[in-house]
Description:
Rossmann fold; two-stranded parallel ribbon; 11 helices; about 15% strand
Amino acid sequence: MKILVTGGLGFIGSHTVVELVNAGYEPVIVDDLSNSDPKILDQIARIIGYKPVFHKLDLCDERGVKELAVNEPDIQGIIHFAASKAVGESVQKPLKYYRNNFYSLINLLDAYYGNPLNFVFSSSCTVYGQPEHLPVNETAPIQPAQSPYGNTKQIAEEILRDLIASGSNYKVISLRYFNPVGAHETALIGELPIGVPQNLVPFITQTAIGKREKITVFGDDYDTPDGSCVRDYIHVVDLAKAHVAALKLLEKESFKGYDVFNIGTGKGNTVLDVIHAFERTTGVKLNYEIGPRREGDVEKVWGDVTKSANKLGWKAELDIDTMMLSAWEWEKYIAQNPL
Ligand code: WQD
């Protein structure tokens, strides 16, 4: 079965391409290369043994997407990763985020409209904001968005629900990711932040390898075990496998319409837990200091993943130590083998 993977050369997309092949699917990659490197295609080929079909395409180009649907007609499923995803940048450039994240989604849904199609959408736990109850489950209220990025995820989920309610042939699953980290066990693919990393784990590994002088812990005065923020970190390979599980559920006759699942480990770790796990597993001492809180951070969030275990038939298997070790192996690989 051919699966269109938009954003398929990105961090989560590339790991999902590998797991799709492992599960017997044929991925067709679409990526505009705005936040990924074309050489990741070669790296994927080194893992799966062949180079998947790749279309360089900006999904905001309506004509281009229609041409894609003509050139790639026998697509049985779509996994839609392609979107701008930097929270801070979205506050500075809201129009870029609303244009890119909505035009791409609508063009894609429009171009493939009519075929009975299984659609997996890359959503985020950011839609929960600071949940009232923890762990947070899928019935929790959607909080007012903390950023235009988060708002695009909330509104995209509503677009998908409305599409289903209109009686379209689509079947849709939204996966609400918690915090994806780590890298493939081969260390041939991983996270490739452009410029100064915004996210914790790439900043940790770049500090460990000497690219950054030190890492700042954004606040240690929160109401958490050690005062630093709590997140549900999930290995990117576990996350990739959740997309395969979502496709399998969509393929079932019994699945109708729309559903949404939390994709996390169900466990919370503080920033300092992560730093200490990195130091313990790699033996590398990190130069870190405590600094002021970062604007917009939620204090603590981790997922209730019961529904994913029971209905999606998926649960995370890899622990925080494996996440840290694999992230470190990738950082060392990319330092010695710049793409
Ligand atoms: C995690 C924790 C920081 C850097 C965001 C998006 C989410 C997803 C993942 C896109 C926080 C702390 C970080 C640093 C630090 N994005 N931190 N020093 O903010 O939970 O989630 O990225 O898909 O949708 O919201 O992830 O890695 O930026 O931060 O102390 O140098 O690490 O304050 O508590 P976040 P993050």
